[in-house]
Amino acid sequence: MREISDNADLAAAARGDTLCAWAAQGLAGRSRAWLSDDGRALAVAGPALATRDRLVVAGAPDAAAPLVREVLAEVGPTYRPLGEAALIDALADRIPGLARVARFGWMDCAPPGPPASDRGPAAWLPEADLAVVADLLAASYPASYARPGAPGVERWAGVRGSDGALAAVGALAWSAPAVGFLAGVAARPAARGQGLGRQVCRFLLAAALARHGAAALMVDDANQGARRLYQGLGLHYRQLGAAAVS
Q1: Count of domains for the chain
Q2: Which domain holds residue 80?
Q3: Most exposed residue of 46, 121, 140, 236, measured as fewest CB within 10 angstroms of its CB?
Q4: What is the pLDDT, as a whole number, of residue 117?
Q5: 242: nearest Cα among 21, 46, 2, 40
Q6: Would 101 be classed as within a structural domain?
Q7: 45 domain residue, yes or no
Q8: Is residue 192 part of a domain?
């Protein structure tokens, strides 16, 4: 395998895949990337991305399997292979001790994004509101990876209801130079069905596209409502699989 140290080489190997670009984080910090000897598989190790050490894999299964074995031997078993569901299934079948652990969606888009006139009253939130954000997440989305003050969580946005209280929130978190990442989108139960979560998503999406040129998020496959919301905002869905060393 050959380690990639140049972002131009990584971009060429990734072929526009936002998942690979997100995991690479601009090859900053401890992020690393490798190409198989025949150039048909790519592995990108991103530490502590959305709370996990992730090893994004792309390419042909017969080339990816030996590459993943070598990379895991170097970076350690805390890294969880992540990629197209069929590829992860193939890796779990080929690599002893690697087990399938999850299915979920990756959704992404590029400009132009939502029109400025259609983004609603959402806005960036001041530090003074972060305790309220934490309370809202605890009540409405306790499984959220993004939390106020957590490492990698960059900035929170929100929209207020008619009573002036925060009704829906979301964040940009763990973004890469070329991919803004949306996380922690939640609305109070009493505020659901009013389009407030959609307004927050539109605001975050526009900010991510303006700053990074592309935007992405992860979504639970079972959450059909969220998938429809994001697809309505122009994001495209593909199913991912994740595996872990058992």
Answers
A1: 2
A2: 2-105
A3: 121
A4: 47
A5: 46
A6: yes
A7: yes
A8: yes
CA 128 to CA 111: how far, in whole Å?
Answer: 32
Judge if 10 and 101 occupy the same domain: yes
Q: Is the pTM of this model over 0.90?
A: yes
3-state secondary structure 14-66: HCCCHHHHHHHHHHCCCCEEEECCCCCEEEEEEEEECCEEEEEEEECHHHHHH
Pick from 44, 14, 17, 43: nearest CA to 30 = 44
Residue 193's pLDDT is: 76
Please give the Cα distance from 89 to 143 (Å, whole number).
25
The stretches in the chain having pLDDT less than 70 are: 113-120
SS3 206: helix
Residue 71: which H helix or E strand, with range? helix 61-75
Residue 115: predicted pLDDT: 55
181 close to 208: Cβ distance less than 8 angstroms:
yes
Residue pointed to by tokens 């000897």: 37
Residue whose pair of structure tokens reads 């979301």 in the numeric block: 170
Residue 120 is predicted with a pLDDT of 64
